[in-house]
Amino acid sequence: xxxxxxxxxxxxxxxxxxxxxxxxxxxxxxxxxxxxxxxxxxxxxxxxxxxxxxxxxxxxxxxxxxxxxxxxxxxxxxxxxxxxxxxxxxxxxxxxxxxxxxxxxxxxxxxxxxxxxxxxxxxxxxxxxxxxxxxxxxxxxxxxxxxxxxxxxxxxxxxxxxxxxxxxxxxxxxxxxxxxxxxxxxxxxxxxxxxxxxxxxxxxxxxxxxxxxxxxxxxxxxxxxxxxxxxxxxxxxxxxxxxxxxxxxxxxxxxxxxxxxxxxxxxxxxxxxxxxxxxxxxx
Length: 283
Ligand SMILES: [Zn+2]
Prior knowledge:
Elements: H1 2-10, E1 26-33, H2 44-53, E2 64-68, H3 78-89, E3 93-98, H4 111-129, E4 135-136, H5 145-153, E5 157-158, E6 163-164, H6 179-195, E7 206-213, H7 217-236, E8 241-246, H8 250-259, H9 275-280
Parallel strand pairs: 1-2, 1-7, 1-8, 2-3, 4-5, 6-7
Helix pairs in contact: 2-7, 4-5, 6-7
The structure holds zinc ion.
Zinc ion binds at residues 33-34, 97, 103, 139, 170.
């Protein structure tokens, strides 16, 4: 089953296909899940922040961090909270991922526990940023109509992803030897929709959502290379990238993210990697 879904993605258009729709250039909307990390020394979240701020591709990149505000080895610690504050001070956007000690699946929490967890996380993030978070990403990409409804009741909109580095360490994959091939395959799968102008255009560009995990030391150590790969594969696939390829202001970033949220669980986009297949086993 996994092989079938991978083969399906590789059937996507290539750079040779003409693009009649005169589409708006893409702009990469970077997102980071599961952080902050409280590991010291060599903290991966700190490293990610430094690279976003200064790198050979574009300085001052702003990202959305889907945070775990009560994680035992991260956001629930004093150092974790210091990093959450630093993310805000550096102009990034904080969003909700979990407010449980671990990476709890929202679909299995039960409605009351999910609500309590959302309220806790919203309060945690509001105390740090001064405003309630608007975006949520479900752990393990796992949600159903009820999950989505409870999110929306709490003023949260669900953002999934277009490209994923598949670098989550939760399920045991903390490195990728095939990161260039993976990103190229995922962008190639997006290309027909970009060409046909069926993706939302915000502020003159087509936001393409990319997911990494800032608690993953491999990601932190290779982020600069990942940024280069994103630019390279767009060039290879003849997908035009905006003059500033990555977002550099939180307000634009938020407008772009809100244009890409999932409103209705019946209209669900593909999940990254193995996750469509994995969750289909439990439906
Ligand atoms: Zn996660």
